[in-house]
Design goal:
The protein is α/β, with parallel strands linked by helices. It has a single domain, classed as Alpha/Beta hydrolase fold, catalytic domain (Rossmann fold), CATH 3.40.50. Helix content is 39%, strand content 17%. The chain contains 10 helices and 8 strands. Strands 1-2-4-3-5-6-7-8 form an 8-stranded mixed sheet, with helices on both faces. One of its GO terms (molecular function) is hydrolase activity. This is Alpha/beta fold hydrolase.
Length: 278
Amino acid sequence: MTPYINVPTKTIVTPENKTFAYREIGVPSAVPVIGLIHLSGNLDNWDPSVIDGIAQEHRLILPDYQGVGGSGGKAAKSIQGMAQEIREFIHALGLEKIDLFGFSMGGFVAQEVINQEPALIRRAILTGTGPRGGQGIRDVTRISDQSLAKALVTFTDIKAYLFFTRTPNGKRQAAQFLKRIKSRQTDRDRSIGWPAYRTQLKAINQWGSEKPIDFSKLDIPVLVANGDHDIMVPTKPNSYALDEAFTNSQLIIYPDAGHAGVFQFADDFVKQVNKFLS
């Protein structure tokens, strides 16, 4: 199997005339996994260790949002709008049933995809994320801006501050993660532009002010996972509230881990995901 860092980037134009850039990896499977990335993220921000591990047993399709990376258009102004566009992408591929893997903001978008079209979803994996209107989600802009300022001053990638704990172990894990996501040498995706980044932040702020989604009538199996010290989407109460929001869910909390706990504990997370999807 071609490793994720060498998988070519493809494009597709939807019937709505929207161009999406995406990468596809893995073995043939009846139900593919659609991966939805974090705030400001593009195709190169997925951890190759996690993607390659899941791809050993499943087919993954990872798109850029509109207005980001190689995708066309402008960034949607709401999380609901992002979900609608992702659904258009999914249907353009001719898919009738999918599994969802959402990380951070991607978890917000995944929830709205479930809310908008539950019959499309077989199973969902929601990581580093929380429910609509969850505690502290409106603070993402403030926390991101503070961390960006610190990152610029210290010449450090902002994800080292936002995604990992500041313990010695957390700092080591951050360095290893950043090395992995920068290992692709050719055909790298374009970084998000400043206007699209601010549009996404405003969408998150709005989403954090809205009422929670009622998932109580759905029986979709859901895996919720996070680190025990997420400063972006506080683990308590959000991960626990998300677990309780679904009637058929399970929760994994990783120790001494932050927002990107599932990437820090990549080996275990891959095992858990492959077991869950199977």
